[in-house]
Amino acid sequence: MAYPFELGFQDATSPIMEELLHFHDHTLMIVFLISSLVLYIISLMLTTKLTHTSTMDAQEVETIWTILPAIILILIALPSLRILYMMDEINDPSLTVKTMGHQWYWSYEYTDYEDLSFDSYMIPTSDLKPGELRLLEVDNRVVLPMGLPIRMLISSEDVLHSWAVPSLGLKTDAIPGRLNQATLTSTRPGLYYGQCSEICGSNHSFMPIVLELVPLKHFENWSSSML
After folding, report:
1. Residue 104 gets which letter from DSSP?
2. Which family is this protein grouped under (predicted)?
3. pTM: predicted TM-score of the whole model, two decimal places
4. 78 lies in which domain range?
5. Do residue 73 and residue 104 come from a single domain?
6. Is 10 part of any domain?
């Protein structure tokens, strides 16, 4: 999860988020090189008269500054499209969880089980136990098995919401009357926090998301106890 004065992204927990972090670094390096080149050219213009005729009329220079930006855009677009298709691809999910947004809480239904569903409300500040996080803890966590592909079906009962967990690279809109789909795979166990990322009313800030990723054996024990 995030910590105070954090300047970068949260640590990646899923292969998709790792790819997104690598793409961010790749694009940021290109932006840094372009900015350095532009700054260097501006400094030359301010410190040099540049009266030579070959700099004022040069076919070669015009060709370079036309082709080079196109190549740079291709270097950015190809990795971006690759990650986009990876995020949309869901191959034989081991578990499906339906998430419904409400004003202002989330409800979850494990569709592979006959009767396993619950609502998830934020724990008020006055009821927090020592060590629990303000505005992020919920009364019912979403327990999921780690290392398995999980399909999340996301929709809403009332207004627009957005189901987002940054460390897993997930952010999917919850739209009334529409079922959106996202894939989730965690590489390690732990607690992962998120929040609604779409302004949905007066209590928009008070509908957190908590995922508890556990080994498959622990998940089976939990699901048996909930049924």
Report:
1. T
2. Belongs to the cytochrome c oxidase subunit 2 family.
3. 0.84
4. 15-88
5. no
6. no
Domain-embedded: residue 173: yes
Mean pLDDT confidence for 24-36: 95
What mean pLDDT value characterizes the chain? Answer: 90
Same domain flag for 49 and 125 = no
Per-residue pLDDT tens digits for 209-219: 999 999 999 99
**Angle in degrees, 0-180, between the axes of helices 59-88 and 15-47, rounded to the nearest 10:** 160
The reply to whether 165 and 125 lie within a common domain is yes
Asked if residue 202 belongs to a domain, the reply is yes
**For the domain that residue 83 is a member of, what is the CATH number?**
1.10.287.90
